[in-house]
Write a structure and sequence with these properties.
The complex is a heterodimer of chains A (267) and B (163). By secondary structure, chain A is an alpha+beta fold. Chain A contains 11 helices and 14 strands. Chain A has a 5-stranded antiparallel sheet. In chain A, strands 11-12-13-14 form a 4-stranded antiparallel sheet, with helices on both faces. Chain B has 2 domains: 2-76, Beta-grasp domain (Ubiquitin-like (UB roll), Roll), CATH 3.10.20.30; 86-154, [2Fe-2S]-binding domain (DNA polymerase, domain 1). In chain B, a hairpin with a 2-residue loop joins strand 1 (2-8) and strand 2 (11-17). Classes of the chains: A alpha+beta (267), B alpha+beta (163).
């Protein structure tokens, strides 16, 4: 790891000030992606601004159908929440399958959202749930927030404070795990709510998380795995690496989508 | 350089370290607590698991300065005196190890697992929750047996012999 200068922010204002004073600063929350990236010198921030100790950014608030999750809420917090399981069982399931129990004790919702790793699970959930991302300066729809591989609409110094969504009527998530590291080589989240059916795919597309609109139309007419019979996904916009070719991932998208719908219907 | 201050195994410690110092380095090199191991150094193997404020984490993936102000428990601090902790005793009795390199991390994860499942453990849960700990010798069979026996001993249902 290269040298870095650590700062512990006491508030969001303090974090913004520290960020403005840094040469090439980065925010850190749980650090489960950033610290390993710094160890391998893929990332070398001059200043590391720790958000983990800021008050009021942690917790799950559920009021009626509205669910709001503070950015510093850990995967373990989500995985242990009975209320979340009741409101959105697939997000609860997802939180239980991020990394391992040790990583889940530190990694946060906000960190995952801001990082937008193409193999991360949450972006698929938030996109399918038509979630709103609340930052220090504005609110954005997930459709506008996730812009590409490791890319979001966040401006310099802008911090994710929370995410908010309306609990769906039905939802399902299924991922094909990398056999060694268990991250989503392809993950599909389906959600059916007042606004219709949305299908979001992570781990497969070459521009990060995206929506499968053809599947959404078929499922809007008939919300069952049968509706996806015969649907194919073009490999032209899929990632390809030593673990899975573009063609393989394109097929996985259909298989995972069918399983996710079956799960949603069976719940 | 930053000042760090934390409670490690019940003892208050302070030091001055480079900001990039990992918690595991601080524990091993500054405090001499070499029971916490570095296996893969890439967040996968879990040989470095310690408890941070009561929760199991990988000490190779957090800086010492990030942990400043916290309470840390390492394998050395699990049993307060000369006796083994029930989970340590269970690993010994059920031979939950071969080379022993992964064992400190396995035991710290296992104790945390018991905390997270107050209703008790079954084999499926144990195998599932060992996701973050890798053993290259045993094939996990005796580790799972040890964790189940240790969990029972911790709940006070059965006596686990330490000898």
């Amino acid at each position: 790891m290269y040298q870095t200068t650590y700062h512990r922010a006491s508030s969001l204002e303090d974090a913004a000030k520290l960020h403005a004073g840094g040469d090439d600063p980065k925010f850190v929350a749980g650090g489960m992606t950033l610290i390993p990236a710094m160890k391998t010198r893929l990332s070398a921030p001059s200043d590391l601004i720790d958000l983990r100790h800021i008050d009021g950014m942690k917790g799950i608030r559920i009021s009626g159908q509205q669910v709001e999750i503070g950015a510093l809420t850990t995967h373990a917090d989500l995985a242990q929440s009975k209320e979340l399981e009741k409101a959105c069982h697939s997000l609860h399931y997802m939180a239980n399958h991020v990394g391992d129990p040790l990583v889940r004790h530190l990694g946060t919702m906000g960190g995952c959202v801001a990082n937008n790793d193409p193999a991360q699970d949450y972006p698929a959930a938030l996109l399918a749930l038509d979630a709103t991302i609340i930052t220090t300066s504005r609110e954005m729809k997930a459709d506008d927030f996730f812009t590409g591989l490791f890319e979001t609409a966040l401006e310099e110094g802008e911090i994710v404070k929370a995410v908010r969504f309306t609990a769906p009527d039905q939802c399902g998530y299924e991922k094909f795990r990398n056999p060694a590291s268990r991250y989503a080589m392809t993950g599909v989240f389906v959600a059916k709510g007042a606004g219709g059916v949305r299908v979001a795919v992570t781990g497969a597309g070459d521009n990060g998380v995206y929506r499968e609109t053809e599947m959404e139309e078929k499922l809007a007419a008939n919300f069952s795995a049968d509706a996806l019979e015969g649907v194919t996904v073009s490999p032209s916009n899929m990632m390809s690496d030593i673990h899975a070719s573009a063609e393989y991932r394109a097929n996985l998208v259909v298989v995972m989508a069918k399983r996710a719908v079956a799960k949603a219907a069976g719940h | 350089m930053s000042d760090v201050s934390m409670v490690v195994n019940g003892r208050k410690v302070t030091g001055n370290v480079e900001d990039r110092t990992l918690l595991v380095q601080y524990l091993r090199e500054n405090l001499g607590l070499t029971g916490t191991h570095v296996g893969c150094d890439t967040s996968q193997c879990g040989a470095c698991v310690v408890h941070l404020d009561g929760k199991a984490i990988k000490s190779c993936s957090i800086l010492a300065v990030q942990a400043s102000g916290s309470e840390v428990t390492t394998i050395e601090g699990l049993a307060p005196d000369a006796d083994l902790h029930p989970m340590q005793a269970a690993f010994k009795e059920h031979h939950g190890l071969q080379c022993g390199f992964c064992t400190p991390g396995m035991i710290m994860t296992a104790v945390d697992m018991v905390r997270r499942h107050p209703g008790g453990l079954d084999e499926k849960t144990v195998r599932n929750d060992l996701e973050g700990n890798i053993c290259r010798c045993t094939g996990y069979h005796n580790i799972v047996k040890s964790v189940l026996a240790g969990a029972e001993a911790m709940s006070g249902k059965t006596e686990t012999k330490a000898a």
